[in-house]
Amino acid sequence: MSEIRKIAGKEPVSQDDILKELFKDAPASESWQVTLPSKGRFYTNFRGASVSPLTYQDEERILNSKGQGTELINLLVEACVTGVTMSEVVPMDKLFLLMKIREISYGSEYKFSVGCPSCNTEIKTSLDLGSHFIVNEVPEDLTDPREVVLPKLGVTAKVRFPRTQDESYLSDSKVLISNLYRFIESLGKYSDPLIISKAVNRMHIQDIKKIIKEVHKDEYGIDPRFMFECPSCKHSTMMSVPLGADFFSVS
Ligand SMILES: [Zn+2]
């Protein structure tokens, strides 16, 4: 009788305990603290960002959804990144985060193919996401918005970075030009969007280019270019690694 009581009084083995035992040697679910290209400087209450791997459920839900391009990227970032508010993210950080999600979820080898612009041969190649790219972080004095003097008009424009909700205005250069006024907070002493929009239409090309350069600031973040030499025809040229949603569609 006392034997039975002893057994019954033993610690119950719950399903949680069984799973704990089963996974005791498996690596803990990783999470990487990352240093964003923007260093989070343009975000409210920023205290650091971290990236965790895509779960199988996320992969099913997101990659099999009808989402494409920026929509897909936003879903991925939302599922795997903590510490940043989606609506505030600037493009340089988004691309960086996407690359980190790809790396922590599937490993650092990224296989892709490029077409030789000279002989059209499709070349399969790969690179290491963890070491290939140089990430240029913004300098201490870069602000958002920031002031630039337009060389032709001679006035100061206050220009800002695009955020998540502005992504549709960046789809191509024509769309960007007609929406450029949205990224100009003021022009001289004027901040009325209607005046700014009309002024943009009359601006010299040098002023337009100066503003576009300031909106993109593509010297910061990841530089996707690499020197390509075609093994077939020996043509060599500067090319860009296909980034963005391509990261996940090829897996
Ligand atoms: Zn070639």
Outline of the structure:
The protein is of the alpha+beta class and 251 residues long. Helices cover 33% and strands 19% of the residues. The protein has 2 domains: 32-136 and 221-248, no CATH class; 146-216, no CATH class.
What labels describe this entry?
251 residues; binds zinc ion; single chain; 9 helices; globular; alpha+beta
Strand order of the largest sheet: 1-2-3
Low-confidence stretches: none
Multimeric state: single chain
Order of helices and strands: HHEEHHEHEEEEEHEHHEEEH
Gyration radius, to the nearest Å?
25 Å
The structural domain count equals 2
Kindly state the mean pLDDT as a whole number? 89
Bound molecules: zinc ion
Query: Into which percentage range does the β-strand content fall?
Result: 15-25%
The count of helical stretches stands at 9
Would you report the number of β strands?
Answer: 12
Q: Rough shape?
A: globular
Spatial gap, N to C terminus: 61 Å
Instruction: Give a short account of the largest sheet.
Output: 3 strands, antiparallel
What is the share of helical residues?
A: 25-40%
Structure class? alpha+beta
Description:
This protein is an alpha+beta fold and about 250 residues long. It has 2 domains: about 30-135 and about 220-250, no CATH class; about 145-215, no CATH class. It contains 9 helices and 12 strands. The chain has helices at about 1-10, 15-20, 55-65, 70-80, 90-105, 175-180, 195-200, 205-215, 245-250, and strands spanning about 30-35, 50, 80, 110-115, 120-130, 135, 145-150, 155-160, 185, 220, 225-230, 235-240. Strand 11 and strand 12 form a beta hairpin. Helix 4 (about 70-80) packs across helix 5. It is globular, with a radius of gyration of 25 Å. The structure holds zinc ion.
